[in-house]
Specification:
It is built from 20 helices and 18 strands. With about 550 residues, the chain is α+β, with helices and mostly antiparallel strands. The two termini are about 45 Å apart. About 0% of the residues have low confidence. Bound molecules: flavin-adenine dinucleotide (FAD). Flavin-adenine dinucleotide binds next to strand 3, helix 8 and strand 10. The site of flavin-adenine dinucleotide has 39 residues, from strand 3, helix 8 and strand 10.
Length: about 550
């Protein structure tokens, strides 16, 4: 099955309110990784376990009983929640500052109510009502945004609701002949994958947040899954979409291609809840792969690995999954894996003897029918060997597949131990990739040093294109307890400026949200921002949709 991975196959429960994932699933940092981390950071910060749920401080709800009752009339009894736990669960996304504030019991704010419509008609009625009452609306899918996309900002409005999509979660239609499926915008990617797997199909969209994301949220953020090199990102999968905006609907049916003017579908995908609510979408699906081959390959250094991936992308030998870790990330990956057996230790001695001891690990995955998947694998492996790659067999690939959804659980553990851990991403052309990698890594490291907390900065290349690829950075530092937010801001700002000055995009797949909004104009120009603002003014004249995101820096 394409989405194998320990957590996802076990099934995901309701999200832990202060961190990631299923409360029944925890992950401890292996001892070797802990040693590696302590050596790299010098020291860990002061431990910061989360406060108790009832110690979380929320602003008093701004909606009086009569205002809540008017919402109940639209969505029915039990579907307007204003209790403490539900407000906390919708108070933030899952970026580092979100989690830091939640753990400390001081979220930035909270929605005055969480409202759960169950149909397009109810969404329409809610938006009209909120426009009339000046209530801001934050569309809420899985709540996994890492860029402040679901921050409950009310702007100039009288109150703010989280419009939780979880009840609009049905499969509307499966068209097996055309290989498309139409679903409610609140359907979880995990649930859709289960539905499709039972029918021999797959969507192939596996972000690391797969357990919790909604498909409407993925479309709204232009998300990219781990297998995007083969299956494409969500924008390649969305063939039809319906947006309910305060002034009316835009419904684009599932047509394979059209030359009817500029692509409106392209405008709605990535609209981040500021234009309206995506409450239905049609997605292209594929037959589930019958075979999969995941391989580890070592390169002497990052540059050799990058050139080999470029050859794969440009010589029509693209794997479905391709990830190349730089030297720092490779060392951490090996520390996490540990040298459990004599065979592991012998493997590392072999790498050292061949001159790859300080090298970079790539994981390449090929899926599909047989013999086609095996043939693609053979061709790609010949190309990477030509580029100096040393194949090390299926074990690293199997280990990556087993743990592909585990990193966010480790982040919780690290935060409890007093470590700041954050990720960010960009993309650029092949001709600029190595330069940008060096520039962004150096900027983050310098910013952390200036805070008095030298960090560990790691990166991998994933999401390959013929013209370039994405870079995904992870950085860790001892948490600066007296000013955690300042520490995070310093690193984030330094990275964002290095990205923009270095010719990258401010985001390859995490979206703009609130955190990247100051760089939106650098990305698309003043004319681009004005054009999007004009569209928003047309669809949302009262400005109730997701204030403070995407367009409001
Ligand atoms: C641990 C972790 C790993 C991640 N890994 C990846 C990854 O591999 N790839 C990737 O692309 N992203 C990743 N992300 C980011 C995040 O999961 C994606 O942005 C995801 O697409 C958000 O989906 P969601 O349903 O959780 O949306 P939410 O977080 O609920 O919302 C995100 C934005 O979309 C808007 N929105 C949500 N639903 C709708 C709707 N129906 N209509 C209109 N607007 C809507 C919200 O208002 C908000 O602005 C990761 C996040 C975490 C925490």
């Amino acid at each position: 099955m394409a989405w194998s991975g320990s957590v996802a196959s076990a099934g995901a429960g309701r999200m832990r309110w202060w961190g990631w994932g299923d409360p029944g699933h925890a992950r401890e940092l292996p001892r070797g990784a802990m040693r590696h981390l302590t050596a790299a950071l010098g020291r860990l910060g002061r431990p910061s376990p989360p406060v108790a749920l009832d110690a979380v401080r929320l602003p008093a709800g701004a909606l009086a009983a009569a205002a809540l009752e008017r919402l109940v009339r639209i969505v029915g009894d039990g579907n307007v929640r204003a209790d403490h736990a539900e407000r906390v669960a919708h108070a933030a996304g899952r970026g580092y500052p979100d989690l830091m504030r939640l753990r400390g019991g001081e979220p930035e704010g909270a929605p005055d109510a969480v409202v759960l419509p169950e149909s397009h008609e109810q969404v329409r009625a809610l938006l009209e009502h909120c426009a009339g009452e000046s209530l801001a609306v934050v569309p809420f899918g899985g709540g996994t945004s890492v860029v402040g996309g679901v921050a409950p900002l009310r702007g100039a409005h009288a109150g703010v609701i989280a419009l939780d999509m979880r009840r609009i979660c049905d499969v509307v239609q499966l068209d097996r002949e055309s290989l498309t499926v139409t679903v409610g915008g609140g359907m979880r990617a995990l649930e859709l994958e289960r539905y499709l797997a039972a029918r021999g199909l797959t969507l192939g969209h596996f972000p690391q947040s797969f357990e919790y994301v909604s498909l409407g949220g993925c479309a709204a953020t232009r998300s990219a899954g781990q297998a995007s090199s083969g299956y494409g990102s969500i924008e390649k999968m969305v063939v039809g979409i319906r947006l309910a905006a305060p002034t009316g609907d835009i419904a684009l049916p599932a047509i394979p291609a059209s030359a009817a003017g500029p692509s409106l579908r392209g405008v709605l995908v990535g609209s981040e809840g500021v234009l309206g609510v995506i409450d239905e979408l049609s997605l292209r699906v594929r037959p589930a792969p019958r075979a999969s081959h995941y391989e580890g390959v070592f390169f002497e250094g990052f540059e050799a690995g990058v050139q080999a991936l470029r050859a794969l992308a440009q010589e029509h030998a693209m794997p479905d999954v391709a990830r190349l870790s730089d030297e720092a990330e490779t060392r951490m990956t090996l520390a996490l894996a540990g040298a459990r057996s004599v065979k592991d230790r012998a493997g590392r001695a072999y790498l050292r003897a061949r001159g790859y001891g300080r090298g970079c690990l790539a994981i390449l995955g090929f899926e599909g029918g047989e013999p086609e998947a095996a043939q693609r694998r053979a061709r790609a492996m010949a190309l990477v060997q030509r580029g100096g790659g040393l194949p090390v067999g299926g074990a690293p690939g199997a280990a990556w597949r087993r743990s592909r959804f585990e990193a966010p659980y480790l982040r919780d553990e690290l935060m409890t131990l007093g470590v700041m851990v954050e990720t960010l991403e960009t993309a650029t052309q092949w001709s600029n990739l190595l330069r940008l990698h060096g520039r962004v890594g150096a900027a983050i490291a310098a910013a952390l040093r200036a805070c008095g907390t030298p960090g560990l900065v790691m990166c991998h290349v994933s999401h390959l294109y013929e013209t370039g690829a994405s870079l995904y950075f992870t950085f860790l530092a001892a948490r600066r307890a007296e000013d955690e937010l300042g520490q995070w801001h310093a690193a984030k700002r330094a990275a964002s400026e290095a990205i923009m000055q270095g010719g990258g995009t401010i985001t390859h797949h995490h979206a703009i949200g609130r955190d990247h909004a100051p760089w939106m104009q650098d990305e698309v120009g003043a004319g681009g921002v004005d054009a999007l603002r004009a569209l928003k003014a047309q669809l949302d004249p009262a400005g109730i949709m997701n204030p403070g995101k995407l367009l409001d820096a």
